[in-house]
Specification:
four-stranded mixed beta sheet; 435 residues; Helix Hairpins; elongated; alpha+beta; 39% strand
Length: 435
Amino acid sequence: MNSETTIVKGPEKRKAGEPAKPVETPRRLGAGRGLGGRGLVALVVLGLALLLAVGVWNHVARNRAEQQFAQANAETVVNVMTVHRDQKAIDLVLPGSIEANQVTTLYARTNGYLGQWLVDIGDNVKAGQKLAVIETPDVEQQLRNAEGTLNQAKSNFELARANAVRYADLYLKKVIDAQDNDTEQTTYQAAGAAVAAAQANVNLLEQDLSFNQIIAPFDGTITYRFLDVGALVAAGSGSAGTAIYSLAQTDPLRIYVYVPQGDAPLLAVGSTARVVTREYPNRFFQATVTRTAGAIDPLSRTLLTELQIPNKDGALYAGMYGEIEFTLHPNDGAPIIVPDNAFMFRAAGAEVVVVKDNKIHWQTIQVGRDYGTVLECLTGLQDGDMVVVNPTDDLQEGMDVKTQQAPPIPGPGPGGNSQGTQGTQGVKEAIQPKS
């Protein structure tokens, strides 16, 4: 048996008597390339630098946000609206009495009695139409007497003319003296004057006799007949004469209205209006302004205005009551419309806050008519000015502000129309800090 024994330890075998190999300690991957002390310090320094940078950035950002917040809170923001002239159409309704365009009472111009009437109330007549006949026996007799007088005067005139010619010839022959010739010439001239006077009397009676017919002076409707056949008629007018008929022209009709002073400048000849009556609730009649008085009544402060309305079908009657509806359009002199929550009463009176170039200016205004949610500004503002809604005494003259447009709030406006008006009621936060 061999004396050498092999010692096996682990996977390797060694012979007996061989020195044991040192056991190798396994090495970790990369252990030979470690950073060492300096690398570790560099990592720590880099981490601290990153933490410091993040902290500085957060601090700067926080300071910037605080500055912006403080600057924003330091600025005053006001709600404003732009004011304009009133351009809304105004509905003006006025009472009016419908009258005949022409109306007259026909009187007798000659004495007699009513022999015949040819038309009665409600009849439509034309200009020149015969309406009645008056029997005038007294005038006819007077005319015959006047004609006899005229014939006698003409005969005397012919005799006087012959004598005048004869005496003129004798005077030229020196048969008679000048006095006799002058007497005959004067007698001739007087006879001529007598003829002229007699002729004038005849003409007058013939004219009186022609008035035995009542003639319509214009187209119209007989509204009243005063006499019956056989009634005594006296020439004249008013209480001294006898009225025969009342005649009215009903096409067109005439309407008189009294327009308030404030609306008078908006009316002009040719303007139209709508006439409404209770008798025709579903029908509207068109009327046209034909003339105005041209002066304001100092007692009522109104302008007398006349309108005419066609009435070809005779639906309307003279004397009816109606309502005249005007649609008026404001002109360049219309007042500025301001919401009721844009002005304040201060020591100087009514004032508004106007913003120009982002600066506050207190402006005194003159207030006109108040419509509830809006009112008229007669003086102090111009078309396109920006006024602050719901101003307070904190707004100082010349103060810098920022503006934002106030939302329009619909409400009743001038003329009673339901119309949109900018910045009326409901804008409660007119002045507020920006957050």
